[in-house]
Amino acid sequence: MANAMEVDDEDDDWDPKVAPGIVLRPHIVRWNADAEGEGAGKVDNLDTDPLHDPDADDQDEKWVADQLLQPDTRNVKSTDAVLNCPGCFTPVCYQCQRHEQFTRQWRASEVRNCIVDKSAALSMAKDDPAKYFAVRCETCKADVGLQDMDGIFHLFHVLESLA
Description:
The protein is mainly beta. It has helices at about 1-5, 55-65; strands at about 30, 40-45, 80-85, 90-95, 95-100, 105-110, 115-120, 130-135, 145-150, 155, 160.
């Protein structure tokens, strides 16, 4: 039984190499806390990552607010969520309103990266005069919702990122 528990290192071909220039690395190399107190709390830092921009998120948020969000009647630019296609994660809506009754349904006046299929009108019931058109992701063609006759989009097959 002891022989069966032994590990045979001969067939292990994993040999990790650590070389200079690796992008993903810790920011703290070593922390020294000696008993004397002289070096206590001293940290050796690596150079900052040249690919990391600490202001990028704030700049992206400002760009979305300036370019993609429309002000409401009080001149406030807000949204309940950013909606993405469930098939390919492409953003399909930057400004929407959550449905009051159905928590997984959203209403929007504008969508992005979508196509509206007006070749066939859809209805909710046989004698219902309201007509809807399928809304699909332009990238992967997944159905993400419907557009009503007034041009309002009802999105319910989406992934939301709460704003």
